[in-house]
Backbone:
């Protein structure tokens, strides 16, 4: 297993899917140290056995908490199943996410409607016991002076939360989808939902920029010490997409609009300049997500 050690005691466990291009794309962050052990995100149900085995391989028998950045199926769909391996673990999430995790029927139905066969590959969402659900409204104490501090960062999802522990800031998808391609090259794109509000995403980025940290941990995929540089670059990227896609929308709101927009972004967005370095299967995956992101922007621009 290609576990990524970001700092001593903090690693990213890959949760690969049997889907084209879904290697090194979904993962869960595990912290282990004197304060105990905690997890940031749990991935989908299909990879819970892999995740539980990797946690135990690191010598962890008990988790102090599972911190959910948001409750999309690829980040939180497996948390109910994971609790069968680590019963009684507090699950920390956005206050408005509590009821959806306790009774996930609508969440699962919405995932199937939106993602189709991808959601089927992720697996159904099991309910989380009400008594372990903890709203992310104040610092969560791990023991001693150690605490994980939540910050509400809506944009990618209305129920999105980021967390800081020590020098690490776990930002989920609030600052986009990231790939470190080596030799200083990165790929970075917005993680835009169909219902998108530019101002909300920008406000969340400003929140992240105010939080002291040395390493930024992405939900997809990896970590960087080029912070706040890449947070600022993503803020600029959101403005750039709005400008570029706004110009395309003015030209013609035609059936080929999304494909035109993607071509313009690949040509003019420096954070997508590494597109040709992506493996073909990753390009296939990313093209699907790019369509979602572009549609989110277009919906916002149309008003």
Residues:
């Amino acid at each position: 297993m290609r576990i990524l050690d970001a700092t001593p005691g903090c690693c990213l466990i890959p949760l690969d899917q049997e889907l084209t291009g879904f290697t090194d794309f979904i993962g869960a962050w595990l912290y282990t140290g004197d304060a105990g052990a905690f997890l940031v995100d749990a991935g989908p149900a299909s990879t819970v056995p892999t995740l539980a085995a990797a946690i135990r391989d690191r010598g962890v028998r008990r988790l102090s908490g599972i911190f959910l950045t948001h409750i999309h199926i690829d980040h939180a769909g497996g948390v109910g199943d994971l609790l069968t391996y680590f019963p009684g673990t507090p699950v920390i999430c956005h206050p408005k996410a509590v009821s959806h995790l306790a009774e996930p029927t609508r969440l699962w139905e919405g995932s199937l409607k939106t993602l189709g066969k991808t959601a089927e590959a992720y697996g159904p969402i099991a309910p989380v016991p009400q008594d372990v659900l903890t709203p992310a409204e104040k610092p969560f104490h791990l023991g001693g002076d150690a605490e994980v501090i939540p910050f509400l960062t809506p944009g990618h999802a209305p129920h999105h939360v980021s967390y800081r522990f020590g020098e690490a800031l776990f930002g989920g998808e609030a600052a986009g989808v990231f790939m470190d391609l080596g030799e200083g090259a990165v790929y970075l794109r917005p993680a835009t939902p169909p219902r998108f509000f530019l101002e909300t995403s920008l406000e969340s980025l400003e929140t992240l920029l105010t939080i002291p940290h040395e390493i930024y941990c992405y939900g997809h995929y990896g970590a960087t010490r080029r912070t706040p540089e890449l947070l600022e670059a993503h803020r600029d990227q959101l403005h750039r997409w709005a400008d570029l896609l706004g110009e395309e929308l003015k030209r013609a709101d035609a059936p080929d609009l999304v494909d035109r927009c993607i071509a313009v972004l690949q040509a003019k967005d420096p954070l997508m300049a590494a597109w040709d370095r992506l493996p073909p299967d990753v390009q296939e995956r990313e093209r699907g997500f790019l369509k979602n992101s572009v549609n989110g922007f277009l919906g916002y621009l149309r008003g």
Observations:
- The longest helix spans residues 229-251.
- The CA atoms of residues 35 and 142 lie 6 Å apart.
- The first strand starts at residue 4 and ends at 7.
- The chain has a mean pLDDT of 96.
